[in-house]
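Lay summary

Proteins are chains of building blocks that fold into shapes. Our project writes down both the chain and a compact code for its shape. Here are two examples, one after the other.
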Amino acid sequence: MKVGFVSLGCSKNQIDTERMLAKVADAGYEITGEDIEADVIIINTCAFIESAKQESIENILDVAWLKKHRHLKGIVVTGCLAERYRDEIFAELPEVDAIIGVGSIGDIVAAVEAAAKGEKYSSYGDKNTSDLGGNRIITTPHYTAYLKIAEGCDNCCTYCAIPMIRGKFRSRSIEDIVEEAKELERMGIKELNLIAQDTSRYGLDLYGEYALAKLVKAITAATDIPWIRLLYCYPDKITDDLLEEYKNNPRLVKYIDLPIQHINDRILKAMNRHGDGALIRETVARIRKAVPSMVIRTTAIVGFPGETEEEFAELCDFIKEAKFTHFGAFPYSAEEGTPAALLPDQVDEQVKQDRYDIIMNTQLPVVEEYNNSMLEKRVKVIVEGFDPVSEAFYGRSAADAPDIDGKIYFTAAPGQQLKLGSFVFVRIKEVVDYDLVGVKI
């Protein structure tokens, strides 16, 4: 039997897919990358915001076509949509044969076997006690991987359904994470991206303190992985010892993902974000004082219920002032079951879109200034591929996280072959939109 996979949503969901891949392969089934060949297809869904839910449903319907017109026997739906809408999926999408929640990854083989027979199957294990580790089949390029250090979230932002879907925040032990990091290194990983819903909270539940810096030290001591990257850190939990680790550890790349979501105090309070605008400003200043070369990536939500033109303008002014290297914005999405969805003064959809366009245009000069500052600099780049159209190699510097940030395109000597995942040095010569162009030196 051949099993296909569709993985949607974030890198945290991707790790769940990788764990399910390993369980299915260990059970003796063949994994296929061609949907048309599959006997059963597993769709690991996202349900974070409305557009993600729609994408998940569209993928289920696309796969259902194969069931009707090809030899596909069964469809298994897993992940956040399965967890959030456990009672509705069978009723609304009768093409689905099996559903498993986020706490039931261990039941994926039973779900596949039931789906292959056309039997209805569902499993919803306790998401607050399910295993967080286990074997994986890595689906990222062979030189980079994500490593989930915790699951769930206790922050309870009023706009977010994640605590409802993923459960309470739970850290994995340092020993468990270090063992996985060592295994990833043995597989050839050169870049390790540590992820959780809130990485900066890591260890509080296990050790009674924020232990992210200790975790990074332990991974650094146990491996020789050249690049260690931190994603999804919160402004209120950036400790002095974490900044010391950034300052003193050459393998902890000088990059931090620090979602702020807003800067106005009233909006931050309505969002139930921890800390006010002053704390965000202070955190950014502390980071830059400790590590002047730090690349900071952030995100913000525009059009939150009740957001006035003045409050939006305050956010735009801060984006200009803070000069974040990387910035992304999201129009607010009212998610059922969240407190913010019940707030009065919901903002018109067109106004949200207009504010999104305005704030992204506000960031453009900041990006241009940063990119122009890179001209003639010598940059270490991890090689990711060759683009036959531009006849150039491409890759990323430590300033760019996989999938979400820009690329560096560069030429090498005629006929030179470069191994994917190797490091080279590039002299930056040109800026093209969000990307940099240079020459290998």
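And here is the second example, written the same way.
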Amino acid sequence: MPTTTAPVTEVVDRLERASLLDPVVKGLRSLTQKVLAPQGIRDALHGVWLGHPLHPVLTDVPIGAWSAAAVLDAVPGTGIGASTLIATGCAAAVPTALTGWADWSDLHGPHQRVGVIHAAANVVALGLYTASLGARMRGRRVRGKALAYAGFAAMSAGGYLGGHLVFRQGAGANHGADIPDLFPSGWHDIGRLDDLPDGKPAKRTVEGVDLLVVRRGQHVDVLSDKCSHLSGPLSDGEFTVEGGQGCIVCPWHGSTFRLADGAVRHGPATSPQHRFETRVTGGRLEVSLGGG
């Protein structure tokens, strides 16, 4: 049977390819990277400290508050409660937007095109909810409710696009989560130790799974090569030292991982890299994901 695509999905698919949005994307990305330039701020907004993207956690507050307000607005005598929820959502929308812009600035072009419209819908929603609060304060309750329901519609559209970014385009997902399922059990030979470059990233492959290998003298660190952020090849990245420990920097968006354990040092990645155990047998390097 022929496959069919929902009309709304077709529209969003076109957004991914809408190169007309690129000048807007370029300008906003440049501005965002300037405003959020300090690495510590970016790491905090990405959610490196949380081990999980911070943006989707914060979105629960405005979405939940505004959705509850929509219910209360349909019930007589709940005006104060609805207004309180709308105000809560408006306040929470600001830090939520900051985390979203930080994540957006480190995505690929198709992600960023959809992300711009996602952000625009949310800005419209915030504006409508703010206007709704103003109308309610002036005693114009019917107008306030109408503006709130319009804001709810804009928020829903923005939420749909946010879901598309995550579930269709993989933004914010751990792109290395399947490594334990793909990598075969046991120990596997990946070549002679002396054939590995000293102090430089190298790539080796075991049954289709690419590995980052960094040798320093007789010490070898092996991580999954596919960056957990957006699958960038870490073996093409740069070896660096931070806090006295060797690290690898992803060549695509600058995510930095500690070689000793795969932990994230700097975002935009928030999920660690899988680390492999190593041993040398007869001058040949062997690796295992579980040591068994």
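What can we say about the second shape? Residues 7-168 form one domain.
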